[in-house]
Amino acid sequence: MPTYEYQCVKCKKRHDVFQSITAKPLSRCPACKGPMKRLLGSGSGFLFKGGGFYTTDYRSKSYHDAKKKDQPAKPSGDQKAS
Question: Is the pTM of this model over 0.85?
Fold first, then answer.
């Protein structure tokens, strides 16, 4: 549910209210019963946690093939240092 910010016209107190999008806006201040107005909110940002949602997750097959060619070859486990 979104959070809406209201301010009382009479006492100037601000209230954050969790409301459904379809709920009617509040009209009376819970503190002094004065008229309320809903303020324009800045909204909220998205917070991505965990793996995924990266630009590189959706690269083309040709991009991944070219990336593999650019990487240096890994030495195999059978070779011994002399």
Answer: no
8 Å CB contact between 7 and 32: no
The whole-angstrom separation of Cα 20 and Cα 2 is: 7
Chain segment 25-44, per-residue pLDDT in tens? 999 999 999 999 999 876 66
- Domain ranges in the chain? 3-38
pLDDT tens-place string over residues 48-60: 666 665 666 667 7
Distance CA 59, CA 41 (A): 36
CB-based contacts of 19: which residues, under 8 Å, 6+ apart? 1, 2, 3, 4, 26
Strands of the sheet containing 3-8, edge to edge, are 14-18, 3-8, 36-38
Mention every residue, 6+ apart, whose C-beta is less than 8 A from residue 53: none
